[in-house]
């Protein structure tokens, strides 16, 4: 379900960072829990954490769908999934190695997709968002989250914020619309980026 040749940069970037990924961001837990609570998920629902990394969001997603729900975590980088397993995140959801460009899921299988820190790493964001739309039921939800806003992230990385950033609201709205999503809300604050979209029928 992966094409490693087109994802060399992702594997090269995340493999050496996997082992201490969680310890670099020790205070993010409450932000993930708050974001998971905004997807409108109900007990028994099915949700995918796309680009789950070390599975930091999985306990929060499990908490909202309950024991009767289904939580999947998919990631391209084996080292991130191994770190997720070591951290016990497999207790909250099923960990799968998969490329969001080609998910091993049937059409409309999911109620929602959560993607944290994902979109800026995608090789083909339009096609990848369309694949996420394929696997979500009509009126299902996409949440693109980051525990830091665009301006604060740019400052941390010592660069300027720019309007050609995929996460800038007009660009993101257009990208999502072309992939079967309607942007319903957009929040870009220092301590939270959250775009919520609904799957068009
Ligand atoms: C910035 S990390 C975020 C990880 C996790 N969501 C979190 O919030 O801690 C981005 C993750 O996306 C994964 N990723 C990038 N491109 C992907 C793709 N095409 N399919 C699946 N996962 C991908 C990377 O391997 C990495 O684990």
The computed structural class is alpha/beta
Main sheet record: 7 strands, mixed
Residue stretches low in confidence (pLDDT < 50, at least 5 long) are: none
Question: Major sheet: order of its strands?
Answer: 3-2-1-4-5-7-6
Roughly how much helix do the residues carry, as a percent range?
Answer: 25-40%
Order of helices and strands: HHHEHEHEEHEHHEE
**CATH hierarchy class name:** Alpha Beta
What is the distance, rounded to the nearest whole angstrom, between the alpha carbons of the first and last residues?
A: 26 Å
Work out the strand percent: 15-25%
Say how many strands there are: 7
Backbone shape: globular
By CATH, the topology is Rossmann fold
The CATH level-2 architecture is identified as: 3-Layer(aba) Sandwich
Which ions, cofactors or small ligands are bound in this entry?
S-adenosylmethionine
* Count of separate structural domains: 1
Fourth-tier CATH superfamily name = Vaccinia Virus protein VP39
* Mean of all residue-level pLDDT scores: 95
Number of DSSP helices? Answer: 8
| Radius of gyration using CA atoms only | 16 Å
């Amino acid at each position: 379900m992966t094409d490693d040749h087109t994802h060399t940069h992702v594997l090269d970037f995340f493999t050496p960072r996997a082992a201490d990924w969680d310890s670099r961001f020790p205070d993010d837990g409450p932000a993930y829990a708050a974001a998971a609570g905004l997807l409108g998920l109900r007990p028994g629902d099915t949700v995918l954490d796309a680009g789950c990394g070390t599975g930091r969001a999985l306990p929060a997603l499990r908490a909202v769908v309950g024991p009767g729900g289904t939580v999947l975590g998919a990631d391209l980088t084996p080292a991130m999934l191994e770190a997720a397993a070591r951290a016990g995140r497999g207790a909250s959801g099923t960990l799968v190695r998969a490329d969001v460009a080609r998910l091993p899921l049937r059409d409309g299988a999911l109620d929602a997709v959560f993607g944290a820190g994902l979109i800026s790493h995608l090789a083909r964001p339009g096609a990848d968002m369309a694949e996420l739309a394929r696997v979500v039921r009509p009126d299902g939800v996409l949440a693109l989250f980051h525990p830091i806003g665009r301006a604060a992230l740019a400052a941390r990385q010592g660069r300027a914020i720019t309007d050609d950033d995929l996460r800038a609201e007009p660009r993101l709205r257009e990208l999502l619309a072309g992939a079967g999503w309607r942007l319903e809300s957009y929040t870009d604050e220092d301590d939270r980026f959250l775009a919520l979209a609904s799957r068009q029928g």
